[in-house]
Amino acid sequence: xxxxxxxxSDSHVVEPEDLWSERISPEYRDRAPYLAHDETTDxxxxxxxxxxxxxxxxxxxQRFEDPTKLxxxxxxxxxxxxxxxxxxxxxxxxxxxxxxxxxxxxVALDAYSIPDSGLxxxxxxxxxxxxxxxxxxxxxxLRGITMLNVDDVSEAVEELERCAKLGLVGxxxxxxxxxxxxxxxxxxxxxxxxxxxxxxxxxxTGTFRWNKEGGWQxxxxxxxxx
Length: 226
Hints:
This protein is an alpha/beta fold.
């Protein structure tokens, strides 16, 4: 492996507990996603809807030869600090001889479950701002992926442009949009903008958009939407 640089193309951060209470735009402050400490686990809520998997930050680095020990329950206090702190994150990368990482969210992957489109956009904007700050100390090693709400294509283009200026290097869109399929021409302005800005678009598993006709599209295969 001498001479090769190892790049993690699908690394994850863990959103801090105060991300949305501190960063969401003022008009959505009273509806900001919040973390509830339930009886057996910590759980994110927004507008009464459960979303996000806290355990994503608590299982990192563990081995599970016994699959029965896997659980979707977890506490924030058990998450590794590298999920929240870029300096610790880079130290963890050094321990694994990783030169650079492309960063996706943990909780915000499931934010597409939030039914209200305005609240979803505000939630993702706040996350994108935080991620840009997370990557800023190590621009040559940490590359952040913007999260886009494509319910309104013109709004998605504006957010892509904004996040490119913040230093983020690509964007994720939901596997299954809430409206038209991705072969519909309404998305052409987004494809054109991404190409012009050299901002690659990606699809990450688990990003299913809620819609009023079908609720959460959990059983729709990626190929149906792409």
